[in-house]
Design brief:
By secondary structure, this protein is mostly helical. The protein has one domain: Ferritin (Up-down Bundle). It is about 80% helix and about 0% strand.
Length: about 160
């Protein structure tokens, strides 16, 4: 990999973090109250863990996308398009769940997101192993979030 272009790296990381922040704003802000009102499946974490996890995950996503942007691989641009698509779907989950209280809609969004994130991580891995590795926590967290969303849907409908 060529030398690090710090401004580009920061743009990727900040843009990913911004998606998370804007998703939170679009969600209406009553996260804790609504989340606490729902029956939770086993192994549900406390509400404070979600923003901590997502800040770290968005940073890892941004770093991995930056790495892909710096490769000369023929599939690099297509992989980045997939990255932006999954980020857009990621954005949707919180407003669907928290603002609209649509547990079924949130379940559909998280299932689509899990598929996109998994494909993206594999694709990133094939292009640049470190970029794929950086997305393993994202895949695992999204799988866990899928379990939680489906569990909440089952217990609350």
């Amino acid at each position: 990999m060529k030398h690090i272009k710090w401004v580009e790296l920061l743009i990727y990381v900040i843009s990913a973090e911004l998606v998370g922040a804007l998703s939170g704003i679009a969600s209406g802000g009553n996260f804790g109250e609504f989340y606490q009102s729902l029956q939770q499946p086993p192994f549900a974490p406390p509400g404070w863990l979600f923003p901590v996890a997502w800040v770290l995950l968005y940073a890892l996503m941004g770093i991995s996308a930056y790495q892909i942007s710096r490769t000369e691989h023929s599939q690099g641009n297509a992989a980045l398009k997939l990255y932006w698509i999954q980020l857009a779907v990621n954005f949707l989950w919180s407003p669907v769940f928290f603002r609209f209280h649509s547990l079924g809609g949130a379940a559909v969004v998280i299932l689509v997101l899990l598929a996109l994130v998994t494909v993206m991580a594999v694709w990133f891995w094939r292009i640049r192993r470190s970029a794929g590795l950086l997305n393993i926590p994202y895949v695992l967290w999204t799988a866990y979030a899928t379990y939680l969303t489906l569990g909440i849907l089952k217990l609350n409908t």
